[in-house]
Every structure is written in structure tokens, then in C-alpha cells.
Amino acid sequence: LRGSKSFTAALPGETERNGHGLAYKSVSVGHLEVAPLSPSRLSLGRASSTATSTAAADQGRPRDYLVLAIFSCFCPVWPINIVALVFSIMSRNSGQQGDLDGARRLGRMARLLSIVSIVLGTIIIVLYISLSFRGNISF
């Protein structure tokens, strides 16, 4: 026998239904209203409390290096620069949700991967041009 994952509970403040004295609502376990586990998941919008906004203003908004990551996408090292772009977008999302430490960490990783991509891309382009002028590579 399988146990049911739904139950009936009395909800305070609801009006009478079907002539019964108490209001009952049948819900499943997956639809229970539970408070979020972490404070960073409270809302998807920006925090509006003065304590949070003053703390954020003191530390400054973390950089996400999105422009640098987009610029690195023009280099011929595609796996690295696409990962840098993903880290940059994740950093921006974390900053908007209020997770400033996570945003800083992801931003630093995006910056590092973007710089590595630009350096390696420049080396590849210089090698390709120098070898093509020597006549070793034909188009």
C-alpha cells in the first residue's frame, strides 16, 4: 500500500464552505507554503530595506565584467570565453539577488577567464599571421 502525499488542514481566516463550520483545504506535500531556506532567496527583486542598501553602498556593487567577457568572445578560444561569459552573467544575477560575496567570486572568475581567453587568442592570431606571411600556411 502506498501512503497519500496529500492531507486536509483547517486554515484560519477562511470563510465557511459548503455549510461546514471550519474551512478545510486539501493540499499536497509539494505545495506547502514554506519560508525560503536562505535569505538570498527571499525575493528576486532588489532588497528595499535600509540596512541592506547601506551595507551594499559601503561595500560597492561587485563588478561582473560583462563587457570584457563579450569582448573576449571575439577571440578564437571559444570554450574558455563562453565559460567566462556564463560566469559573468551568473555574477550579475547573484548581485541582483543580493549575494554580494558570490557575485564578487563569480566576477573574479569571469575576469580571469576573459583575460586568459584574450591572451591566448592574441597569441593564436599572431602565430597564424606570422606563419601565413612566411608561406607555410596556404588559404
- Our measurement of the CA-to-CA distance between the termini, rounded to an integer number of angstroms, reads 72 Å
Q: Strands across the major sheet, in which order?
A: 1-2
Class based on secondary structure composition and strand pairing: mainly alpha
Please give the radius of gyration in angstroms: 27 Å
Topology at a glance:
Elements: E1 6-10, E2 24-28, H1 50-59, H2 66-72, H3 78-97, H4 100-134
Antiparallel strand pairs: 1-2
Helix pairs in contact: 2-3, 2-4, 3-4
GO cellular component, one term: membrane
Subcellular location: Membrane
Main location: membrane
Quick tags:
two-stranded antiparallel ribbon, mainly alpha, 139 residues, 4 helices
Structure report:
The protein is mainly alpha-helical. The protein has a domain at 63-137. 52% of the residues lie in helices and 7% in strands. The protein contains four helices and two strands. The longest helix has 35 residues, at 100-134. Keywords: Membrane, Transmembrane, Transmembrane helix. Its main location: membrane. This is TUSC5 protein. It is found in: Membrane.
